[in-house]
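Budget justification note: compute hours in this period were largely spent on complex prediction jobs such as the one shown. Inputs:
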Amino acid sequence: MSILLAARWGSVALMVIVLLMMSYILCMRAVLLMRERRYRKLSARWTPILLEGGASNPQPLPTVPPGERFLLLILWNTLRERNEQDAGICHWMGRVAAVTKIDGLARRLLRRRSVRKKLLGLVTLGQLRDRLEWPRLCQIAQSGHPLLSLAATQAIARIDPAAAAGTVVSLIVGHLNWPAAKIASILEDIGPERVSEPLARALLQAPESHRPGLIPFLAVCNYSTALPTVRRILREPHIDEVLAPCLHVIGKFGDRQDLPLLYRYLTHPRWHVRAVAAGCVGKMGRRADQEKLAPLLADREWWVRYRAAQAIVGLSPRDAQRLHDIQSTLGDRYARDILTQAIAEGARPAQSGTDLSPTGRMRIGAGR
Amino acid sequence: MMSFFLAAQWFFLLYFLALNAVYAMLILRALGGVARYMQSRDVAGLPHLLGGFAPPVTIVIPARNEDANILRTLHSLQQHYPEYEIVVVNDGSTDRTLEVLTAAYSLKPFPEAYRARLKTRPVRAIYQSTVDPRLRVIDKEQGGRGDAVNAGVNIAHYPWVCRVDADSILQRDSLMLIVEPLLEDPTVVACGGTIRVANGCKSQDGLFVEADLPKRPLVLFQVIEYLRAFMYGRMGWSPMNAHLIISGAFGIYHKETFVAAGGYRCDTVGEDMELIVRLHRTLSAQRKSYRITFVPEPICWSTVPDDIGKLRRQRIRWQVGLAESLAMNRGLMFHKEGSFVGWFAYPFTVFFEWLGPVVETCGYLLVIIGFALGVVSLSVFITFMLLAAGFGILLSTCALLLEEISFHLYKRPRHILVLFAVAVLENFGYRQLNTLWRTAAVFQHLHRGARARLARRKQECRA
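Corresponding output:
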């Protein structure tokens, strides 16, 4: 009987909870619709003002009620990002932010508990190049929160790239679990001329196990820093895991002085090293290198055969006779087939199955 | 008799409490997951931030007798994405699928050095489009969807393979969104997208335009089911790296991991689920650091059955697929390296997803029989029914709440009211019908298994 009673009250309680939840959902929807209406109105009024950056005689700015300042901040960020390339508009939007005091709001948001609001504050300060909260930004960048620390690092890089380069590189070394694509994007924001030296230094001082994760970022650096760093790593005793990322950097800069080094790796026991080396030789080599690549057409690994075939075709793309001559010397059926395919593909730019770069592409090379 | 009913009453009560406790846990995890996702989506939106770093992707579309849909699907794959190729696999179609493709994309035979890393039914020819060099078509003998995808993976150039069903509708940025977890976490080996019901929605030239609700009640019930399945089913398991399925309609896989696992199996009707359970089993046994994850944003819209016969067949197929996937990977259950998935998600799926319909049917039968025999009073009968319906409505309302705090795709207030009504009404008839079909599927699978074992034993005796 007691179970029955509990079940009866349980079902009543369930119904009450369901009704409360449904009412809550309806209230949320009402608030959302109201907010969207307010945002639409605000957007209709402020979008032309924010985008009149180029106008010679801009109109005086309307006052912003404190309750609408947060919505204006969202609109400001949306338009700022959309018009990133237009310096006139960006400059004008910076002035608008100061007059409407949304810069102050952004600074205050850094002290809010909501992660969402903090993120909005960080992005805005980055866009505004606002240095006033620099120590606070550095503090957030060093925090353990994955999103906030990354957003703060990005803001620092935008606000003062010159001052940020060293700090950002040390933050990256300490946060190798950050998404590689985002790190590369931040380094690109800072610029190769500023980031090259600190990155190369950090790389050479980093423990051996950290290097494979850091080397791909050399692709963002200057030619004059990246190549000597890679060559030095390859000259010194190293673990095998650094090879493919190093070769990728060499391939990216394409200095023919490195060809002898690449030839050495065409016979490396790790297949992805052979594949990257073949791709690099195809990019940087001469016609005579086709002979060095031909044995790889019969490699036991398909990707090595494919990269070698692409490289051979790429070294004499318009010389069909030469390619057919090479093909006729091949005894192995797989080698002939792969070369036929590469010829048919018309020596299009190499597709990136084993490409290594500071993106997800390097994953395949990791041979997981 | 009385003591039997009392024991049964306790059994069902405890089963019911355990099931709903897990659901409550999943809902809480999903709430946290949705909140985190919405935060990161706010300001670190992928399309503008990571566009240049997205990995190249091979999209594989298995197509059998899809001459009516295939061009629309290919059109929807004109994605805002830096580098991708499309491989359509004509899986022994008996209609004009290949002719339609040849005419529209000017296909020409291509001397591809086909590399059969995954065994498939024989490939007749490989074609390349002369209009769009990113498109290749494999023409092969029929082997089923899994076999077709395996063939596509064999000629994929890129390190990530995205499977898309030929009747799916994608958004322009779907591909960009589904690769986000791969960029965020290098241990991700597979990622699924959220599927929603396309019936009733507005689309143009194969691309999704606006969400709307379908008119037919049968389809409306499925809208709520999909919301439940994805909003807290997948979203709840995902943070624990424990969800056991990536829908075949839209998912992305690390190619080398896919190949190393042996690709899709062709001897099951639930090849999509079986692969994910197998990946969990093999990768955890190898002590590899991996994640199988999920994007909560609705990025793929799929047409669902709009008549009861098709729905029945689909549900039976799903339940048989579930049973086969679990049976083929039973080694995962309580495996010492199985972590959360082996010790919790897999047993939960066995006891509550596979056996759940049988228990639910027995519960209904027992109450009805008891009521007929006079052992169960009318008030107990009504309380039982109210409690069962109440939990059902609560779970659906939680899914609606999650949808409201995240994507609120159904824009009009009328939509919410309709969904509330559907969340209530589905508990009176539709849910029980589904349970019956799934129960039938459980026995069908057991019967088929017994027959197979018998055949094997006879063969062994003869040998």
